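Our preliminary data section would be incomplete without showing what the modeling component actually yields. Below, a chain of 199 amino acids is followed by its predicted structure, encoded as tokens that our downstream tools consume directly.
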Amino acid sequence: MRDVEVIDDPAAAMAALEPVRARLLAELARPGSASTLAGRVGLTRQRVNYHLRTLEAHGLVCLVREQPRRGLTERVMQASAAAYLVSPGALGQAAIAPERTADRLSASYLVALAARVVREVGDLLRGADRAGKRLSTLSLDTQVRFRSATDRARFTRELADAVSGLVAQYHDAHAPGGRAYRLIVMTHPLPRATQQEDA
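Predicted structure:
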């Protein structure tokens, strides 16, 4: 089972987003069969089996084992990942993209950057899984509370200068065998609910 699966196929996304199937994916964090799941989700075994077959056809669940049960062969399934995320790539040409957003200071541009990260890292994860390798990434996540808009503007300038300086120091466009990485620094206000939880 993978930690996360980024779904970029539109049909697989539709299968995973259907409410009953989404519930089954959550339930299948631990292996289960149609009969064990039926009681938990309030459906007949046959109906659960139908949904499991659809999820299996899209690679979202996989067979763990087959076992005899009351003269039948029971299929025990498990979700292919602990968590799922639908890639904006599933929307094809309708997906948001940074190059189509003119205002680089807008919330739309930030969302477009985040969508590109999901799309690109999802593709890289699939490639790493196929190759049996680990994907090298770096993530920083922190919070800062500004006293004033002036402090926020000063912080923005200093951060931009610091990042530009580091990039200038380490970037080598012609390094033989080097590998390019995408660096994105973004900030947004915390949702009020998150601020209340932190307090």
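The helical segments are 10-17, 19-27, 34-41, 45-57, 107-131, 149-170, 192-198. The chain has seven helices and five strands. Preliminary results of this kind motivate Aim 1 of the renewal.
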